[in-house]
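Thread title: Can someone regenerate the structure for this chain?

I was given the following input by a collaborator and told the matching structure tokens would be attached. They weren't. Posting the sequence so someone can regenerate them.
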Amino acid sequence: MKKAILIASFAMLAMILIGCGLSTTTTSTTEPTSTTTSTTTTTTTTTTTSTTESTTTTTEEPTTTTTTTTTTTTTVEPVTYSVVSAPFENYSTEFVSETAGTAIDFYYYSDKENIPYVDIDEFIALLDGLLDPTISVAIDDPTTVRVFIYYEYTPEEMIEYGVDDPIFYQYCSFDFADMIVTAPNAESFDYFSGETSTDFSEGLNLISYVEEDLPAFSADVAAYGFDFRILDLETDKYLVPLSMANLFLTGSMYDVANNGDNLYGFDTYQFYDISDSTGDEDPTNDGLYNIVIQNRDINTDVKTETVNFLAFVFDYFYGLKEYKGIGDMQEYAWSYFPNMYTSTFMGNIYNFVESFEDEHTGIVDTGHNFKPYPDYTWDTLPPYLLETYNEYYGCACDLLTEDFSLEISGTTAYLNLTSFSTDFKTVIEGYMAQINAADPAITDIIIDMRCNGGGVIAGVFHLLNYMTNEDITLYSSTLGANMSYTYDVEGDLAIDADFYILTSGYTYSAANLFTAAATEMGLAQTIGTRSGGGACSIQAVVLPNGSLVVMSSNMNLTDSQFVTVEEGIPADYDIDWQSLSSLPTLDDFIVIINQMENPA
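Best answer:
Regenerated them for you:
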């Protein structure tokens, strides 16, 4: 049993702060037989309304009354369903399995056209080896399905992991009667994650942690227009929309997405490679573009499901909802979609996402509809993005030819780091070895974070490990619950030098966290402008229309007083990069450092 499942903090370290086959469809309007895998459920309702009119005529003759009755009959169309065998292909390079399935049945209903439903048990079986190995499905009663993981610690593991309860148990329960999803808390779904190929916790040993209790999770999906359906067959099928199965059951960094009648698996680290993977020379990305290649399955049902899903996900999983002052997320979301029949539907999604003015929240790809969608221009960039791009170009980030570089002048080293990549630990080891080997010895190290938009949180610990041999604590707040995790990073690697961090408005996410931690621990001084902020890890979301979206998750990184670092960290030595006619050289920074060390 891996630590990332036993202790929630290890899953945080992997978080990011920034094949087709033939399908067979059968539809029937009769009861199921032994020769077909598709059935139709027929529900017909007849309503009869009677209207009676009476006319009375009075003459000298006896009174005669004539009564006319009009009957109107309204018939509700039957709800039918069809079954499609959808081929499955896993493109993930972090979550791999030799035992995963190759196909799953999609169930389509006539009252929700083009919205695939999947059986919960079949869905979990399909992803065998891609999810936690202990994951199981239980039918608690005829209308309740529970997906859970259960693990019993050995006495040795209890000591090693510092846990008091010998039982580890998490679950997600689907109530098919009342359409409610429940779990111990909103982080419970993350525990379904499988093992990654990369050990993101390598060299990091958790020595203590403090966790406040998170509120219990309970969501009425019917209130957002969703439903669960039980199909009464020889073996009952407990069906949920594919979008809900992906949201609740695939863990924190793995997703599935359908494109037509095909299903694809991928991980969050690939999210930004999908759109341009057709021209990507990296062979590991072969086929990724199939996830979003255009098809014609959009209709009003898909649009409605997409808006409902946006409202639901942002209501329960968007970490800055209260920070942004949003009350009724459902009303807020639908306000951006006044007419579902217009051609501006994708533009409305853009407007909704951009309304949060949050660089951790955006559209990565428009999905398998509406391609191509026009790129931003300087005239159409939202103000918050325009400010960020001005910082990016003001620091000449667009002119950099390498993601990482090292320059040494005398006793000063200048290290430019543009991301916290998945291989950051290996990359940084090489550069720090050069700094340690320098002659004369390095006394000042400048770490340039001006063009660093973030990456994997684990990289922050590995970089701080070269600045201190002390334990390093990560502070966060999730839905009002404060948490702290203290790590011992392997090896006494701290370099005896003074550190300076160059920051800009583009210093964002994990780079912002690094800046916040280094300054609060007294390990470095900062030069430049206030960092760009970005306190939440990102959550990847697949919309029912195929659009790929990222958003700020519920995990909000803070300082040691549990105050969010969302607004960035001010600089100790101010430089307005955009106002300069030319950017400072290493020699210029050496002069600035001397001024900081020897103020007049």
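The radius of gyration is 29 Å.
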